[in-house]
Amino acid sequence: MAQALVRSTIQRKADEVAKLTSSIDQYEVIALASLYKVRASQLQELTKRFRSDILMKTAKNVLVKLALDRSARQNIQDLSKHMVGSNLLLLTNMNPFTLSILLDKNKIKATAKAGDIAPTDITIPAGNTGLPPGPAISELHDAGVRTRIESGSVWVMRDTVVAKKGEAIPPRVASVLSKLGVKPLEVGLQLVAAYDDGLILTAEQLSLDLAATARQLEDAHQQAINLSVNASYPTAETIGLLLQRAHLEARALAINAAYMTPAVAAEVVAKAYSHMISLASCIAKINPDAAPKELKQRKS
Description:
Alpha-Beta Plaits; 3-stranded antiparallel beta sheet; alpha+beta; about 15% strand; 11 helices
């Protein structure tokens, strides 16, 4: 009887490893996500959200390692080095950076437990709590929240910070937040590492600051535009700027060289007239009688 149970267990685990290996070989990207502090209900919600894009599998680390060892994928066995604690196996065909961003954007609001660290200042807003008078009043008072009774309900008199960012949430505060339905925590899957085309990418390598990356791309684009314009290298993006600069430089050259064209005739004549007036003024200083009549009329 005992031997039969052992054989059944061994066979079941062997079948599980075979299925894991088959799944691993079917997808382009294999990733590990930490299940630390992720509750069963939250995992179910995340599984529903990602069902069409990600296959999620939970299995003991030892079975996953066996499946990775049996896979024919190049270097995928190195993913085992990142398996610490409880992990979730993510199988997908999406880019690993896209996967990281997707997981980061799909965090779930969760209630706080005593001892959890407040991610931001946690505030109980002023207004109707919906709770009837009774024990709730003393619980709120213990959490530092002032209340009043109105229309048969407990009302919070003003916005009250009950936990500061970075502080551990006290048991009495966690209890009050739960009763009020306040969910101050964001819980999601934290990517540990991902395998893609023979490479193992860690969470740090996959973490992208999209705003900073966008700024870097904008800066690089502007620098490329400047280089193209300064080098007079025409592209679809810079041809307009190059033609404008060429037009302005050609116009300035024609004016400075007194080269008469319809486009600059007025500027050339105006410049010559200005030089003439300046020269006449210099002559008048030496011999006032030699000054042009026009200049004398101007002075009078």
